[in-house]
User: Fold this.
Amino acid sequence: MARVRVTSEIGPLRAVLVHTPGPELLAVTPGNREDYLYDDIIDLELAQREHRRFVAVLERFAQVYEVRALLTELVTRPDVREFLVTRALEVVPSDALAKKLGELPAEQLVGLMIEGALEDAGPIARALNETGYALPPLPNLFFTRDVGIVIGEHSIIGSMRYGVRWTEELLIKALFRYHPCLDNAGILYDGSEEKRTNYTLEGGDVHPIRPDLLVLGFSERSSPAALDHLCDVAFAHCGVKDVIVVVLPAERTAIHLDMIFTQLDRELCCIYPPHFVGPERLAVLHRRKQSQGVKEMPNFFAALQAVDQPLEPVFCGGSVRSLQEREQWSSACNFFAVRPGVVVTYARNEATLLELERAGFTIVPAASLLAGQETLGDDARGVVTIEGSELVRGGGGPRCMTLPLRRRRARPSTSIPHSAFRTPHSLNDAHYLPGGPSPVSRVGGRPAGARRRRHVRGRAQAVVGAAHSRRRAQPHSVGAPLPARRARRRLGADRHRPRQQGRRQVPRDLRCAERGRHWVHLVGRRAGRASIRDG
Assistant:
């Protein structure tokens, strides 16, 4: 059996670990949903149906392993059974439970480990219908990404932030330690053994972009101390040379980095715009191997440029802020790549899918793919959409529900140059490089400081961000002398330049109207913010 090996987010998928949600979801009620880290309760039958369709899509591209099936194979071994029972009882000590677990057949033992074991209720508890769990259920286990991480040929066991997920660490550790399908070069960090409260690490915050580059998220679920330790072991054992860290806000909508950023293709990623572009953009740090500290970067895309990994963004929810917020909440940024340029996502996020179509992706419903009605060519870009009205209630998307075990290395593109992948929101230009203007305001869909696109004989000249210009093609060729009238008009173009009013300068990307002593700035669709200038 081949070893695990993952060196990128988009390499062709060969093996992946998932868990189909089961009766453990029934333990989540409106009263305890926050204890189980849920925002809503889930319909089990619908969730299972949606997850089976998701797994069927994955099986078109890779070998899919189920957590429950692999554990059932393992616990027939006495040493594995003893390991699981002993470690589970460290979480919830109980002699009666230990005896019960030791006598169960393999399938029932695994079922109790995942679905939970109820306490033996006494007379009062039975009368009040209040029976708790001796062994807690694991309704978050179908988010396998958080509990395990593969970097290169090494594995990492997550250190879960909340105790309701601690038993998950034991199950994934057993698989990486004992099962041949998850054979690896060693466990670099074992979160199941972590006793320090400030050491938490979850896989949603770990993105291997290249064999030598990691992108990490400092979030509510992953602590700085654990991220530093991950950097140390990755530098020492995995060939990693650079690490970019995104400092996430303390918000329920951004519990992991993969809720606001995922890679789609060699040159493309999906982002939640407010956190990467504009005044709300997040702090970004760069740590290099053998360096003594970290460097604060101007923005995320400047950090990627600094390590020779330019990515063009596709905006989650398009350019409308309300749609961005709605679709980010429903995991629109949480894509899972099965090969470069082919990703899986929820069908419900229509504005994001429209942005992907504009970027050259073909939208393929999962039902059409599975029925053979639509296919994706070897070099085609595509988005396979799955229904997820129930799965999304758990707070995650396709990336959250998958733990890649083996990917082939993503080869550099040889057919289409990177410069051909220009999106309407290109950030890899002078306006966004270190030292360039900050990408704060966007006017009419253009980056700050960008002029409208000019056309010469129908050919667009290289001005980024003005994809919808309506200018008429100029009737003169490039480099030809302008007619006298046009030359005079060109010389009089100062009226289009920023007007000087004392020491005050009006940016050219703001359409301004002078009303007495007031400048009324009309930015995009928002109007009426006036700044008063003393004469």
Observations:
- The CA atoms of residues 305 and 417 lie 16 Å apart.
